[in-house]
Amino acid sequence: MGRSAKWIQQRMMGQEIRNKLTDYWKDNEVKEKDEYAVLTNIIHQEWSDLSVKEHKNLKRLKTQNLRDHMTDAELVFTALAELSTRQISETMQTKGLEENKSPARKGGRIAKKARKELESKTGKKVVSGESFLQFPKSSKKLKEKN
């Protein structure tokens, strides 16, 4: 089963937003790899109420990339959290890991508020164990006997 054009477009938009955030960090004294992971986890925990590891466990992933298995909504809220984080970081002119923790929390909280609002309007959870790359489980409907 191929990926939908919409999912690919969202994934690319999310990756562009992510790249702008990591470019900001790189240009402002955040060390790649470990420090990026710390900040990413703060952002993710804030918006989703789960650490990256907990979210991967929910989706039953081992070494796979979490973003590759996110639903449309999860991708959108991740992108909102990262976009918000970058814009707040730029406004605050943060440098290094410690200074960037505050905008990471604030950016994640913006997305969390939006997630909670959507969940309250739809009655559906945004964060789920559903994986975009998993084949949908067939749903068998019970036929009523006349």
Shape: globular
Based on helices, strands and strand pairing, what is the structural class? Answer: mainly alpha
Residue windows where pLDDT falls under 50 for at least 5 positions: 135-146
Radius of gyration: 17 Å
Largest sheet: none
Strand content: under 5%
Secondary-structure element order, N to C: HHHHH
- The tally of beta strands, per DSSP, is 0
Helix content: 55-70%
Mean pLDDT: 88
- H/I helix tally: 5
Taking the alpha carbons of the first and last residues, their distance comes to: 37 Å
User: Can you tell me the number of structural domains?
Assistant: 1
Description of the structure:
The model is unreliable at 135-146 (pLDDT under 50). This protein is 64% helix and 0% strand. The protein is mainly alpha-helical and 146 residues long. The protein has one domain (5-122). Helix 2 (34-48) packs parallel to helix 5.
